[in-house]
Amino acid sequence: MRFRHPDGSTVHLAYCTNVHPAETLDGVLAQLRDHCEPVRRRLGRDRLGIGLWLAKDAAHALVSDPSALRGLRTELDRRGLEVVTLNGFPYEGFGAEEVKYRVYKPDWADPERLDHTTSLARVLAGLLPDDVIQGSVSTLPLAWRTHYDDGRAETARTALVTLAERLDALQELTGRDIRVGLEPEPGCIVETTADAIAPLSAVGHDRIGICVDTCHLATSFEDPHTALDALAEARVPVVKSQLSAALHAEHPHLPEVREALAAFDEPRFLHQTRTATAAGLRGTDDLGEALKGEALPDASPWRAHFHVPLHAAPAAPLTSTLPVLKAALTQLVGGPHPLTRHLEVETYTWQALPAELRPRARSQLADGIAAELTLARDLLTDLGLKELP
After folding, report:
1. Do residues 19 and 51 lie in contact, with contact meaning Cβ atoms separated by under 8 Å?
2. Does a structural domain hold residue 124?
3. CATH number of the domain encompassing residue 217
4. Is residue 146 part of a domain?
5. Cβ(187)–Cβ(303) under 8 Å?
6. Three-state secondary structure along 245-299?
């Protein structure tokens, strides 16, 4: 979906396909048919933006075979879909029964991460619509925090500098400007937007910036205005933003609240949980850990890294951090000029929701994704952006 900002620029809205992951190119093509096109039809749109997640094998197939890349581009056009952004965070296995810590491998100290991200940039350059010259790729925030020393940090910095040089060369070759954004996430080396400033300043290249995920922002209790103002002052570009909402528990000391939270403790994804105390941010790596005894102080609200549907907050006594998303979106695109032109709804946890909230059929999932995009569209038009055909 495209929107005209009051300054005349185009802002793109997509939804991320990691909600129905596939490891192979054939699986990606099936996604377009079985999921993406039905969402477009529900919205009554001739064209729908999608943020593709391409696993290692799918990306390799596309970058090594120009005819396969042309075939994917043709299939996108045929189904009324367009791609300006890729989710390059998960490398493979995102559809596994247990993902947890595996999603952070390989990290930016591993040559495989540089090679994979380079492949994604090359693929995206071939998928961009004819009238779009800029694409974006989100990636993991350097590494999970453990086993990361100064040597690995320097290796990661060198890899990002090399990536920037490759992106320069790619633009010279194709005319397409591809940018990559580190996506701060709780528990990682770059946990917050503030953590991103020093390593990105060390890279010193505007092709490498930040992806602001509003669920992660909220989970770390970051104030959107403070965070985004600091990025602007440090001249760190916001390459893209993922529109998502975290799980919020206002009174985690109450038994009924803990019981409600326990329904979201599931074995597939990591749900880092945080609370803001007078002594600073405290947290656990997973929701189940937070619920055990006194592992996490419960005198103040808790937030868990669980992407809940934007349009459907959990039932009381829980809620979502949708207000944080709204505040961030106002800052991102509500000013005289957008801070980013790539927005991506990223609720990948539909099948990890408590059983009574999960979609039971493809049609229900498509209905839910369409409802999320409708909410995001309404937020954008309320900010003065005009939806384009």
Report:
1. no
2. yes
3. 3.20.20.150
4. yes
5. no
6. EEEEECCCCCHHHHHHHHCCCCCCCCCCEEEEECCEEEEECCHHHHCCCCCCCCC
In a structure prediction context, what are the per-residue pLDDT tens digits for the chain, which is 389 residues long? Answer: 999 999 999 999 999 999 998 999 999 999 999 999 999 999 999 999 999 999 999 999 999 999 999 999 999 999 999 999 999 999 999 999 999 999 999 999 999 999 999 999 999 999 999 999 999 999 999 999 999 999 999 999 999 999 999 999 999 999 999 999 999 999 999 999 999 999 999 999 999 999 999 999 999 999 999 999 999 999 999 999 999 999 999 999 999 999 999 999 999 999 999 999 999 999 999 999 999 988 999 999 999 999 999 999 999 999 999 999 999 999 999 999 999 999 999 999 999 999 999 999 999 999 999 999 999 999 999 999 999 99
**Packing angle between helix 224-233 and helix 322-333, nearest 10 degrees?**
30
Chain centre to alpha carbon of residue 47: 21
Looking at the 3D structure of the chain, how many domains does it have? 1
pTM of the model: 0.97
213: phi then psi, degrees, rounded to nearest 5: -95, 120
Range of the domain at 79: 2-249+318-387
Q: Rounded CA gap, 17 and 54, in Å?
A: 9
Residue type at 293 in one-letter notation: G
Measure the CA angle with vertex 364, ends 358 and 367; round to 5°.
Answer: 120
The per-residue DSSP string of 173-213 comes to HHS-EEEEEE---TTBSS-SHHHHHHHHHHH--TTEEEEEE
366 in any annotated domain: yes
Residue 313, in any domain of the structure: no
C-alpha span between 300 and 310 (Å, rounded): 24
Residue 32 one-letter amino acid: L
